[in-house]
Design a protein that fits this description.
194 residues; mainly alpha; Four Helix Bundle (Hemerythrin (Met), subunit A); binds fe (ii) ion
Length: 194
């Protein structure tokens, strides 16, 4: 995935849905860089937690706001992106279990980085053209607002190393605070944007 003109890293109030997603993709790439460049374990853990927050919020907002639109044009593309996101979630949970100090962390992080950036590339190449055909420009603007509102609902202090849920669901457990808040906010934002 190469950097493009929208890689300013700042939120633009007029940014439409596609621009908001693409800006996130650039930010996620930079957050992977930050983890790799961290010079001590604490800095690495902080950077990893920032990535978790961004990534889980981003994928959750896409699952509520974006993929349902894709599904209207192509069930296959929507299902493929969802499956990639599920795999990413499993790998993210594995990294969370390993912890930044583990020997395997770096290898698994490199795997996650490759998978996530390839996934983002496929969204930009295969999914976004379908969305642009399905939704007019004015609605794309409103959906951009809804997308950003949803992501902002992600709790800043959600520690990924939260206790396991009562059911021992290690995959969903650590991320549920983020998923729940973003999903609720996305549904509310969608309701008020239509
Ligand atoms: Fe995605
Ligand atoms: Fe994405």
């Amino acid at each position: 995935m190469s950097a493009s003109a929208d890689s300013t890293g700042t939120a633009d109030g007029n940014e439409d849905l596609i621009a908001a997603i693409r800006r996130d993709h650039r930010q996620i790439e930079r957050q992977f860089d930050s983890i790799e460049m961290a010079t001590d374990l604490q800095a690495r853990d902080d950077a990893f937690r920032e990535l978790v927050r961004t990534l889980v919020a981003h994928e959750t907002a896409e699952q509520v706001i974006v993929h349902p639109l894709t599904r209207r044009r192509s069930e296959e593309v929507a299902e493929a992106r969802l499956a990639e996101e599920k795999e990413g979630e499993v790998l993210l949970a594995l990294l969370e279990e390993l912890g930044v100090g583990s020997d395997d962390f770096e290898i698994q992080l490199a795997r996650l980085r490759r998978d996530v950036l390839e996934h983002a590339g496929r969204e930009e190449r295969d999914e976004h053209p379908l969305i642009e055909r399905e939704v007019d420009a004015e609605r794309l603007d409103r959906l951009g607002d809804a997308f950003r509102t949803a992501e902002r609902a992600a709790p800043t202090h959600a520690h990924p190393h939260s206790p396991r849920s009562a059911t021992g669901n290690v995959v969903a457990g650590p991320f549920m605070a983020i998923v729940d808040r973003v999903r609720d906010a996305a549904q509310r934002a969608l309701g008020s944007s239509s």
